[in-house]
Amino acid sequence: MAVPFTSAAAAYANAAVQGLKPGMKTPAEEGESFGDLLRHAAEESIDTMKAGEQKSIEGIVGKADLADVVTAVSNAEVTLQAVVNVRDRVITAYQEILRMPI
Questions:
Q1: Is the CB of residue 53 less than 8 Å from the CB of residue 77?
Q2: Which among 24, 23, 28 has a CA at the least distance from the CA of 13?
Q3: Which residues contact 5 (CB under 8 A, 6 or more apart)?
Q4: What is the distance between the alpha carbons of residues 43 and 48, in angstroms, rounded to a whole number?
Q5: 54, 57, 49, 55: which is closest to 75 by C-alpha?
Q6: 37-96: per-residue pLDDT in tens?
């Protein structure tokens, strides 16, 4: 007789562990989760944007080389474009899911 699960997540985790072949690792043992990966990417993006702002401020007061300011601002711009592109892809994927027939 099967044991009732209290949540869908617990059922999924149990099914994932039962489907492992000998020598395989569980998802928790594999490493970083997708959520952790997204969190780290967001933190790195924020750090890059802050570095660009800081270099801009240093450039305004004359404490930074112009090349360093341009490089930092360019890195921040590329990071912002990447974040916007990822956001657009997520929204598009969500809209596609909503259009799927049930």
A1: no
A2: 28
A3: 11, 14
A4: 9
A5: 49
A6: 989 999 999 999 999 999 999 999 999 999 999 999 999 999 999 999 999 999 999 999
